[in-house]
Amino acid sequence: MTCWSGLHLLASPTDSLHFKPTHHVKPDVNRRSMSIGCHCQAILFHQNLNTMVATSDIPADTSTSLLTTLADEISSSATLLSSHIESRRLPWPSFSADGPRQPICEDNEEVSRARTALIEATRSLHALAVGPVETTKHFCFNEIYLLGAMQVLCHFEIPQNVPLQGTITFHHLASKTGLSEALLPRFLRMAIANFYFAEPEPGLVAHSAWSKPLATDEKMRACIWFRHAEMLPAVSKLVDMVKRYPDSPEPQDTAFSLAFGDAFFGYKERHPENMVQFGQFLDAFSGGSSADSAESIARAYPWETLPNRALVVDVGGGIGHISAAIAQAHPHLRFQVQDFEDLRGAAEELMESKGVKDRVEFVSHNFFDPQPEPARGAAVYFMRNILHNWSDLYCKRILKPIAESMGPESRIVNCDIVLPEPNSVPKAQDAVIRALDLTMLSLFNAKERSTDQWKELFASADGRLEITDMVGKPRMRMDSLVEVRLLC
């Protein structure tokens, strides 16, 4: 997370804390996962810049300075966004503690394009201003120690002990939290240099828009914890993993297992106290501006075209958040949520609270096993972020029982990332996606997949499986809905 002020204003305080993680997975194969006259000119700027930067098609010599081109793009995009904010009477993005958590609403495609263009131009301008040598010399230097400082601050509950309004002295804060008064300013000032907290006067600390969510939302604190406590140690073992297990498909042959002595969820079972924070870390992403919410999935796919009383099987559906949202939006459908038996109580409680308990049933099921008889011939077998947690070998073992249970009108709807072609998306977006791919590798020996890789995977699981439709942007944000049918 390199800190550029313009980028930080456009990327919300909560988005700065996380990216979309893996979830609903259990590496033990005998158990399965819980599983946006002037506006037209501005838009042309956005489209041209996205193409230019995304493809890196930048000439070595040009009569126009790339620095001024990017600066013009920043001004143009910022003007469009400011007009949108002013016309909607929305709160202005701000570093102050009263700044909005999600500064720009993305329900308008023009606004969304402008925000993307602004982030990309800001990122590119920063890189050009710093230059390749300084970038490499200080590569990740800030990020590593920012993460360490934030972990210390969260461990000693500094965010919760800074008043939401007003200030507190370093001395008083140290005495309240037990963090050494000599060390506290060092960690805090590292955070302040990266927009977390503020020091309005020497020796006084206050919240900023970036630190305030850490005081009020335990899920945001869990983002710091998981990155530092579990992801960073795993990343440090990637070289060892690649050397020791270069071609292994096994979920226990991972960088995580080398760091912690056990596969990811085996470790979690031995340390159940960490599962609470890991669950909070996962939940944090359902509210991020880059996330595909359950409601967006209910809108993106043409569920309304399914027959009356058609059955949707939510494979590895956890406690059924997705099924509940689709059921509320499409009352003609029935649902079966499949997951661990120990999730039944929470699932039934959720369905009761959503008013859909009469159409959504929970079934204890291992997705490596044959589908239960009532689920055979279902209209849809839905999976969200299941297959990206597994190597091809295990994905085939998941898909085969589903294919065997499908009828002529059945289809699989798989909700996962589809990797973009190289140089086809802005680099800021691509960086997040590539980080997710390496997350899958380091934690689970799994991967994100391109369109061709998805095609190959489905066909290798069952030669009759073929992709028939894909729903991506703008209806989806990060993931895509991939529809797969049996074609004889």
From TrEMBL:
The keyword Manganese belongs to this UniProt entry's keyword annotation: no
Keyword annotations: Methyltransferase, S-adenosyl-L-methionine, Transferase
A Pfam family it matches: Methyltransf_2
InterPro entries: COMT-like (IPR016461), COMT_C (IPR001077), SAM-dependent_MTases_sf (IPR029063), WH-like_DNA-bd_sf (IPR036388), WH_DNA-bd_sf (IPR036390)
GO terms of molecular function: O-methyltransferase activity
Any one Gene Ontology BP term: methylation
Domain O-methyltransferase C-terminal: 253-461
Presence of the UniProt keyword Mitochondrion in the record: no
PANTHER family linked: O-METHYLTRANSFERASE ASQN-RELATED, PUTATIVE (AFU_ORTHOLOGUE AFUA_4G14580)-RELATED
Protein name, UniProt field: O-methyltransferase C-terminal domain-containing protein
Organism: Neurospora tetrasperma (strain FGSC 2508 / ATCC MYA-4615 / P0657)
